[in-house]
Amino acid sequence: MTHSLLAPLLSGPLDIVGDVHGEIAPLLSLMNHLGYDQHGFHPHDRKLVFVGDLTDRGPDSLSVVKLVQKLTKAQRAQCVLGNHELNILLHQRKYDNGWFYGEEFADNGYIVPQALANDKNRDGILDFFNTLPIALEREDLRVIHACWHSPMMKSLTEAKSVVALKEKHEALIEKRAGNSSLDEVDISLEHQNQNPVRRLTSGPEERVPSPFFASGKTRHEQRVQWWNNYNETFCVFGHYSIPDGTPRGNHSTFCVDYGVGKRWTERRQGRTNRFTLKLAALRWPEKLIVFDEGESRQL
Questions:
Q1: Residues of the chain with pLDDT > 70: what percent?
Q2: Which of 140, 132, 173 is closest to 156 using CA atoms?
Q3: Distance of alpha carbon 179 from alpha carbon 161, whole angstroms
Q4: Number of domains present in the structure of the chain
Q5: Torsion angle of C-alpha atoms 249, 254, 256, 261, degrees rounded to 10
Q6: pLDDT tens across 84-120, in order?
Q7: Distances from the Cα of 107 to the Cαs of 62, 218, 248, 262, 267, in angstroms?
Q8: Peptide linkage before 26 cis (omega within 30 of 0)
Q9: SS3 call for 6
Q10: Range of the domain at 15
């Protein structure tokens, strides 16, 4: 399906929701605190914008996708593509996306309760993800999942699909790497930093002095805080979880991911409410952060 990977952002006041990661109950609670009904209507004609990573880890990715798909179809919301949606589009099985393949998510013997996809809903999920743009933009605001990189934005306007764009640049990078002396880690970094689909949905990376283990595998790269050098139109993003509540960003950026994607770890410890890991939304233009349990703070 052909669509624009760099799309116009809705006009008017917005509520920009962080990474949901299958947490349907916090999402419904957050919508209620923001003043939306279950159908996405708001009495003051506000609209929702999702920064991607709707799925994985949480208990009900299916319901989250179904709700966001319904809201976007009714033009009451927009959503950009996150790296977790991209993994599913590329049929890449990861540490935490087994639900899509009908498989349970286990961590050190603990089975995380999850709704599992089946043949009846799998194709519909893929069709929806294929419609998602990578970035949204209007005069005063930009929204993307992980990283805004202006030099790469032109490629989004020329692409027919996110998968085709990713594969095109992957082939170009492989060709360059084949004529170089780069080692395996450097080639991996080339794919991450020079492929616009990878960079925009999961951010730039750099080599680390010592490998470390995270999300089910040994890693030789770490994320780069790109926002420290960003001084353009205000940009809201997710991806970089901030569970301690310390804001990430600068005067021109804000990360709205407060770590709800790992709320299952708190449930495993017996917590049932007043969670440390939260789902949040940034109200625009008010610059007010609202959390799923009702508290709020000014940016």
A1: 96
A2: 132
A3: 28
A4: 1
A5: -30
A6: 999 999 999 998 999 999 999 988 888 989 999 999 9
A7: 20, 16, 28, 12, 13
A8: no
A9: strand
A10: 6-158+226-298
